[in-house]
Amino acid sequence: MGSHYEAPIRKPLVTGNKSYHQISVDVARPIEGVANQKWWIVFGISLILFLWGIVCIIYTISTGIGVWGLNKTVGWAWDITNFVWWIGIGHAGTLISAVLLLFRQKWRMGINRSAEAMTIFSVIQAGLFPVIHMGRPWLAYWIVPIPNQFGSLWVNFNSPLLWDVFAISTYLTISLVFWWTGLLPDFAMIRDRAIKPFQKKIYSLVSFGWSGRAKDWQRFEEVSLVLAGLATPLVLSVHTIVSFDFATSVIPGWHTTIFPPYFVAGAIFSGFAMVQTLLIVMRKVCDLEDYITLQHIELMNIVIMITGSLVGCAYITELFIAWYSGVEYEQYAFLNRATGPYWWAYWAMMTCNVFSPQFMWIKKLRTSIVFSFVISIVVNIGMWFERFVIIVTSLHRDYLPSSWTMFSPTFVDIGIFIGTIGFFFVLFLLYARTFPVIAQAEVKTILKSSGDNYKKLRDKK
Amino acid sequence: MNKNIKKYWKSEIELTDSSKVESLRNNEFVEKLPVDDILSDKNSLENSNTNRRDFLKYLGFSTSAAVLASCEGPVHKSVPYVIQPERIRPGISNYYATSMFDGYDCANILVKTREGRPIKIENNKLAKFHGSANARVHASILSMYDSARIQGPIHLGKDISWDDFDTKIIEKLDLLRFSNKPVVLMTNTIVSPTTSKIISSFTEKYPNVTHVEYDSISESSVLDAHEMMYGIRAIPYYEFDKAKYILSIGADFLGDWLGSNYDADYAKGRIPVKIDGTASMSKHIQIESNMSVTGANADSRIPISSSLQKLFLTHLYKKVSNLNIQLPELDDKLSSNLNQIYDDLISYGSSSLVVCGIDDIHAQILTNSINDLVKSKCKSTSKISLLRQGKNKKVTDLINKIYNQEISGLIMSGVNPAYSLPNSKQFSESLEKLDFSVNISMKMDETSSKCQYVAASSHYLESWADFEFINGEYSICQPTIKTLFDTRQPEECLLKWSNSSESMYETLKENWTTNILNSNDSWNKAIHDGVYSLDKKVNFNNNSIDVVNSINALIKNKTKNFELFLYSKIGMGDGQRANNPWLQEFPDPISRVSWDNYLTVSKKDAESLGLKNYNESNGALNSNYAKVVLEDEEIKLPVIIQPGQAIGTVGISFGYGRTLGVKSEMKTGSNAFLLYKDFSKLQDVEIKPVYEIHEFACVQLHNTLMGRGDIVRETTLELFNTKDKNYWNPIPVVSKDHIETPVNKREVDIWEEFDRSIGHHFNLSIDLNACTGCGACVIACHAENNVPVVGKREIRKSRDMHWLRIDRYYSSDVSFEDDNKNKDNISGISDSLTVFGQMEDPNENPQVVFQPVMCQHCNHAPCETVCPVAASSHGRQGQNHMAYNRCVGTRYCANNCPYKVRRFNWFLYNNNDEFDFNMNDDLGKMVLNPDVVVRSRGVMEKCSFCIQSTQAVILKAKNEGREVDKNEFNDACACSAACSTGAMSFGDINNKESEVYKRKKDERVYHLLEYVGTKPNVFYHTKVRNIDKSI
Q1: Would you call A332 an interface residue with chain B, using a CB distance cutoff of 8 Å?
Q2: First CA to last CA distance, chain A
């Protein structure tokens, strides 16, 4: 795909005088090397969090949902907040690999592997919540339309929760296939370099017999394009459908037609923020600064800034429409969001999601790695609050004031959330040690056009 | 002979050569077991792999394995009927008419039994005197299945047999009789003619015994005044349905005042029915200090202290009687109110009624006099109520005698003075010192535990009795189940102790056939009906009364500190049923607090004392404590800031603070009887704030309607009569192509409708004018539908499970109408913040409204569309079904319910020690309705329109080959059946004859949140207030 001419004003996407071999060495280094102490410490902490999450889940399932802070008025809180948050985070991967592929954005090559990995790992976290939030999770399979002998029982295709099941499972499947397809030549590279027989065996298995023939590469390109074509509508559909959980309801604050685009923008926003968080750490830890350059970070910051502004626009539109609708319940719902008992959550959301990304207009800030890292964390927090605000502040004061109440989480609510964070990092850390974290085959295709040494050579002419 | 005996042989050999068989039989082991050989062979023993330790191991294993293998689940023996009793068919309910009186509550009821087991209380509609079951009576069935009941007679803490018990008691009684030592029989009010007879024959047998009636909450002042003026010691019989103008001065007649039961009559006058285009309804003015249920229902409410109420009464009397007397002045506002009330009283004339709840004989004399002066026809001149008999003086004398050891023996029945006397501690001590003490009681309560003899008493559902609540209106109480334990009803004890061989049943029947029944009326029919009427009239004397003396006595009174007015809560009454989890969890209609009593304080006083109510982060209500000091008595209580509480007054409810005979969970609140000195509900107390935190279990955390007049629609009688329906009850509009279209029009509906005109289509009508908020429906629903009790901790987390709740709203401004106006006049964001901020707090003297809310059974139900597994779906008869065993518990339906009526089983509420209420023990589970499943955890539940009963009605009609009667469905729904005021009416709107169909055509009808387009099958009737702007 690659070796087109690239204008000199474009910044190089691969720095540090890389040769093809050097790229292979760099990418294979974490896999072939031994984990350092830092890795073990971080992994250990993540594992503990993960195990604590499992304890909390077991406690919930064995005792009842009552161990959470929910009540008769607020039937969802942290569970679905976490679900939507993780799903949102899982958005960036497919966007980067599919949409940017179709738009021929080469800067995606440095980051798409990890972004996709992040997608899959966060969708796994997200998928946990719809199951464990059920009163009787052992019957979770009832929400899948499988032939059964319970009589003429069938699922209710009107329910957005059922749409979620389809949307998420499709998304997970396509993302996984897409990710693995991209991994094939890279796994093959590792396999070819492997010295230990066991390692060789494993990587030959996972590389599905990649031989590097021209036919392989042709099919690879074709499949990538087809999958990108399939995955692109999914980027829009998944979060659209998640937003239907709320948009199709009758609760003021949920019943909003703006939700689908608003959720998609928010998802991309939070997804990019999470990619940013992970990659800023990873490029440092795995010595990948040459592949994930400041240029990548800056571009991602711009995406964050734009999507953040879109989200902010949606927030303001919501307020406007609430006022414009003339519906008193709607008006009160939004007044209550901003000024009611949960005002702090609303303004945390506003600050983190709308105000903080605006700093990225300043070039100095968006090229500062520390600042980018801080903002990416802030955005993740803000996006969690966004979902909390939508879910809890709409429910806790809806139509009949007699039912109004408050929600406050228990240690189990918190434990399960932290557990999923632990689980996510356990997976990601294992991934970072066993998978080629840069799509080296793709990066090699742009080395001649976008590698700094080659660019310099060309520019001298 | 021997030869003739037939010989049975098993084989041919046995027949021919029996000796061989015989030898074989004797030698079972053909070869001798080589035990000795083995044991004597030391070598082989030592070389054996199986040594002694192994042997023991094998032995141990095989024994325990055999034991384990033989273990099975516990065997429950169920004995089938050998002879199927007639009319008891499995799966079919039987109803028995009975009645109850426990010294506090009275009711004529039907008891629903299943397979011989009483499971629910319903109203007996044959009764002329309503005596309809209130919340406590509905819950009383659970008290029978109370695991804390005494299960047999007890002597000095030890179980003994009834024979020994009787022998000992008779011995002791004889001893006391011969030595002529005084013994007192202390009971609650006796309204039973037969029991009175039994008591008199008991006192005949033992002339040293005197009988004293003791009401824990005394109404002596009313009785004394009546006795003094009319020569009969009784409660006046008020007929509220005849009243067009009701002035109540401190009388909570929709609560427990005088044994009450006035709500049905009251509600009759409160429903405005248009005749020739104009409707009329009664006007109700309430002057009171605490916010009572009655005050909440009043058209106008004047919150003033009881001492001001007394003064007001004297002024009113002065005006009505044209008496020339100098009285202390009223302030301007009160005197203008006085003038208005006086004018109304005179203009309504004989249709007006004044009732007074002040515990003062003089106030009662003035009240009676005013009623007589205006010739009120609402106070009967031939009927009297006998529900209370206690005389304060007699009781005080008795108590003093006990203190001074002037009596030797005390027999008690139906009372718990060690709890309900102000100086209960002294009483308990004196009781222990008595030579002879007996308590006939169902519980090992405060009194029983101090008595030498405790006779285990039966529940009224296990007893025979009769009552005469109103003169000439008799009720019969018949057992609906054999005594669950080795218990005896009090009358049986007295009969036994008077050496009578008759049983209560025999005595009752004899008394009825000889003294009560007319010769041509049948005893069986009387039992069947449960009620019996005789045309008995009483003649009132007209004694002359020194009114001036009464007036002078009334105006003298002044309180120095805070004026405490003790009241009783609908949930707990006088505290007899404190061990009843349904009642503990029952939210008070006014404060909506369950599991507690508290000190009600006005907002102003709370501010000056620094007392606070506030919500925790999960919404739960917390408060400070206050110490209430009365002379040497001091109790500490949490505080509720009560809108409508008169400034300078406080209120505490009776019935809480029980310490013995109740489970630890039920030991809630503080005992207000400690402050009930001299049987006066009015006390002069000091309030000291205590800045500790109390945790309340309150089911409603937001008290105001926030200007959402759409939820509780109301109008005034004037507008109702003069304006078009669209003015005061418009149908909400939505935009369709930018045109305002009524929401019930077909074109704004995105759903396909199916034909609902075939078969039954159920609707429930709720008239907000008739609903007094009494809560009988809440408990009836609890009983019918096996609703779990979740306890204080869970209620604090807003997890109450009631399928039916009665929302109570206060107005933020002086009226709801002003709230709506304030909200409509909001301009701009800052204004809306201010106005909504102000609306969060109720007014100091707010208007109050009650709104029962249960599942609205929407025809376009938001819950149904969102359930992924279709557990919630729509029924052909209009119900919104809930298939519990299909539910996976996503709670999406509850979130999407605009009415928030769905209840989730957060935990396992049965067979769980964490929730140690009636569903955690075998006895308490007997009350469960076998027609309704007990929900497991993780499942959503909600009101089903009592589908089990509506189906039963349909099946019954089908079996009998007829159509369902026009109003037959009304009694199928637990709530509408329990509603004594007629606020709820349930039925089939496809039956054009039915009451509910007629009510649906009423122009006051509206649906809750109609604009959402849910098309509910529950509809409400706009509340019409007979408001007088001048008060």
Answers
A1: yes
A2: 24
